[in-house]
Amino acid sequence: MDKKAQNLHGQKMGRKGRETRQKIMDMTLDMLGHRSYKDLTVSELASETGVSSSTFYVYFEDIEDVLFACVEAAALDLDDLHAVLEQEWDHKNLEAQVKKFVEVYNELWEKHRVELRIRNLEADQGNLRFLNIRIETTKGILQKLTQRISLLNPKLKYPQQIAIVIHAAMGSIASQHEIGITGAIRQTRKQLSNGVVELICAVLRN
Amino acid sequence: MDKKAQNLHGQKMGRKGRETRQKIMDMTLDMLGHRSYKDLTVSELASETGVSSSTFYVYFEDIEDVLFACVEAAALDLDDLHAVLEQEWDHKNLEAQVKKFVEVYNELWEKHRVELRIRNLEADQGNLRFLNIRIETTKGILQKLTQRISLLNPKLKYPQQIAIVIHAAMGSIASQHEIGITGAIRQTRKQLSNGVVELICAVLRN
Amino acid sequence: MDKKAQNLHGQKMGRKGRETRQKIMDMTLDMLGHRSYKDLTVSELASETGVSSSTFYVYFEDIEDVLFACVEAAALDLDDLHAVLEQEWDHKNLEAQVKKFVEVYNELWEKHRVELRIRNLEADQGNLRFLNIRIETTKGILQKLTQRISLLNPKLKYPQQIAIVIHAAMGSIASQHEIGITGAIRQTRKQLSNGVVELICAVLRN
Amino acid sequence: MDKKAQNLHGQKMGRKGRETRQKIMDMTLDMLGHRSYKDLTVSELASETGVSSSTFYVYFEDIEDVLFACVEAAALDLDDLHAVLEQEWDHKNLEAQVKKFVEVYNELWEKHRVELRIRNLEADQGNLRFLNIRIETTKGILQKLTQRISLLNPKLKYPQQIAIVIHAAMGSIASQHEIGITGAIRQTRKQLSNGVVELICAVLRN
DNA sequence: GATGAATGAGAATTCATTCAT
DNA sequence: TATGAATGAATTCTCATTCAT
Question: What percent of chain D has pLDDT over 70?
Answer without folding.
Answer: 93
